[in-house]
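Narrative progress, year one. The postdoctoral researcher (J.K.) led the effort to move from monomer predictions toward full complexes, under supervision of the PI. The following entry was the first complex the group processed end to end, covering 789 residues in total.
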Amino acid sequence: MSIAVAKTYKLYVGGSFPRSESGRTYQVADAGGSFLANAVLASRKDARDAVAAARKGFSSWSKATPYNRGQVIYRIAEMLQSRAPEFIELLITSRGVDHAAAVAEVDAAIDRLVHYAGWTDKLAAVFGSANPVSAPYFSYSAPEPTGVVAIIAPTDAPLLGLVSVLAPVITGGNAAVLIAAEADPCIAITFAEVLATSDVPAGVVNILTGSATEIAPHLAAHADVNALDLTGAEAGLATELEGVAAGTVKRVYRPKGRPDFAAAPGTVRLRSFLEIKTVWHPTGSPSLAGGSSY
Amino acid sequence: MSRSTESVATDPTEWDYAPAPESEAIGRVKERYLPFIDGKFVEGSGDDLVSVNPGRDEPLSTVSTVSEADLDTAVHAARQAYEGPWSRLSGAERGKYLFRIARGIAERSRELAVLEALDNGKPIKETRDFDVPTAAQHFFYHAGWADKLQHLGHGPDPKPLGVAGQVVPWNFPLLMAAWKIAPALAAGNTVVIKPAETTPLSALVLAEIIADADLPPGVVNIVPGAGDVGAALVRHPGLDKVAFTGSTTVGKQIQQTLAGTGRKLTLELGGKGATIVFSDAAIDQAVEGIVNAIFFNAGQVCCAGSRLLVQESIAEELLTRLRERVDTLRVGDPLDKNTDVGAINSRSQWDKITELTRAGVDEGAELWQSSCPLPDKGFFVAPTIFTDATQTMRIAREEIFGPVLSVITFRTPDEALAKANNSPYGLSAGVWTEKGSRAMAMAARLRAGVIWDNTWNRFDPAAPFGGYQESGFGREGGPSGLAAYLDTDDEALIG
């Protein structure tokens, strides 16, 4: 038997897989405590690079049509399906779950992506409104993406949790900078390989591995980050980040408790990263003869 | 154009308006106003404040303010009311109370219009035609929602949040109180609301209307005071929801204060709205729109169009016509029915506007001010237009909150978009063009919560209002505004 070629786990930024500019790594253990891999210990500079990449990704992704966004997210589901065995094996190795539990988690993650793929072209219909204003104007309100969302991924359910926090953010047309669960960088970066082969434009999703405690405060303070998802932050860190986020009036989603990712998702994660824009347009007379176009 | 009185007599084209002041007595200004807590008007244990008539720089009335202990009482009363009568009422019954309040405002609208003009300094034309009727409309609109919450899309029986603490600004004192109270009550919450230090009177007349409507005690508590009272209210541990309209600086402090508390927050903060005028715009309508955008309420509007981005090819013509039009605006007595631009609300705001105007001159922008005469007393600023402004100047970046317009030119739509979006704010923006597709395309790309195509300053309780970025989050008005007062968190939790 030949020697296996081990994977080098790197970051996922701007559609590429760079190492940290800092050159730092940390060792990741499998469920039994043995060495599994070296992962990148992302730095502040990596976080800033990821934000810059996300801003670029946002400009194209937010202008993509809802149908196109839905197809791309569905494509992520397809790619995850095709690589299901790899994730099942990785979950068993790194988390020590049994085969059935690993299969269930991968299946649920695929289903979650399919669920959100179908949301992109319904957001405006469900969360928008035609406003019956008492003046000769056509007024409508429609959701738009908030912008760049920094996500601290949950530390339980390494694949399903990751997908459950990421999918609603990109479904709305946002770009994401996601800090993977510190103990599960291998699953997150393997998922990045799925994203990289799914027609997701470069920069729409950026994944950092390492310490949320170290990186997240920089993202919370960054003026080009518009929102925070604190799902994976422990309580003390989450409160600190909420305070830092106030400096630039970021939108913050912090779950009331530990989310049950196996349950059907509601819409709060979608709504938390959408802005309602109201547009007013004059109506008035269809005849311009009287000069009454307003 | 000569303004000498001699030429008025001889030149038939020179004419002036006769004074047309509304009677001050209609405002029924009382010598002293009291906080409204638990259904009663009670002496507060804070220091009295004197509300000034900014149109004359004279004391208008004295208001008893609340202490932190009074706030405890008010929050406790709101909690009791929430857990007691208010949550046991059906939505339909709650709605009937709100309808009553809407009617009460309409019935006392003339009085409120005069009182608001006296206390705030804005022209009676605006209080009479906008502030007061729109306040009544907000209660009427939300009254109708109270028994229809199940149709909002947040489940069959959405729950209120509990007790809301609300802090409103001085630029639309009654209207902002209505924006805050009506949706909160419609959704089933109770409130403790603090009017602004310089404009507490109309909210306390609203308290009388609420009392006359027999609203159960404690459902609405109105607690006058200065910024320290507001700060104490928003950090009060007895609240479930905080809603604030005011400056971005204070909004950031509130967001920081609430970090880790889990309390819901709505922030409606500052802005630096851009009016974009393309070369194909209907120039006369655009001029009227620009005037509305920056001189309505003397520019003391969070969504004011304080930046004018004009396409280079028409800049000269547009600015000539704009100056001619602005020169005809009548600045003066807020109670005069012919007044277009009233007083600045306070001396401190007047100082801030004056300081920023000086900064504009110092930084090299070209100053033009209306030649209109200003009253000898009171806080007045002549309508001001800065041309040759650049993106980096303070007058182009900071919210002046006064009748001061900064004009910047552009050549291409992309340049206009880049300049308009180059701001940490994102509340309002507008486009003047005769090309519908361009108006819609610009509307889609402007990063602001409210976009006005070929108009400005349109508001309606049915239309959600609120900002992007540092202009705040959460909406007021419409279905999304109402949802901000409901528990809409639908994520399943473990355990």
